[in-house]
Description:
The protein has a two-stranded antiparallel sheet. A two-stranded antiparallel sheet has the order 2-3. 0% of the residues are buried. By secondary structure, it is mostly beta strands. The mean pLDDT is 86. The protein has one helix spanning 33-36; strands spanning 28-30, 43-48, 53-58, 64-66. The chain has one helix and four strands; from the N terminus they run E-H-E-E-E.
Amino acid sequence: HDDEHDDSHSEVSADYHYQCAQGEKLDSISVNLIALFPSFEKLKVMWLTDSQQGAAELTATSSLVRIR
């Protein structure tokens, strides 16, 4: 008896915009979506500030986006 595995995946896209009154003091953001949605395997995060931009890949064991 052979079990077939469905190796397909789904992609979800979302945009979030935050404004912080003291954004210059912010150095990282904790993103806990994988804890809330355990079927997510990884998150590809792109971020932008007034002075920098970057990207990160988050997993269940790595949920911190460092922006400075």
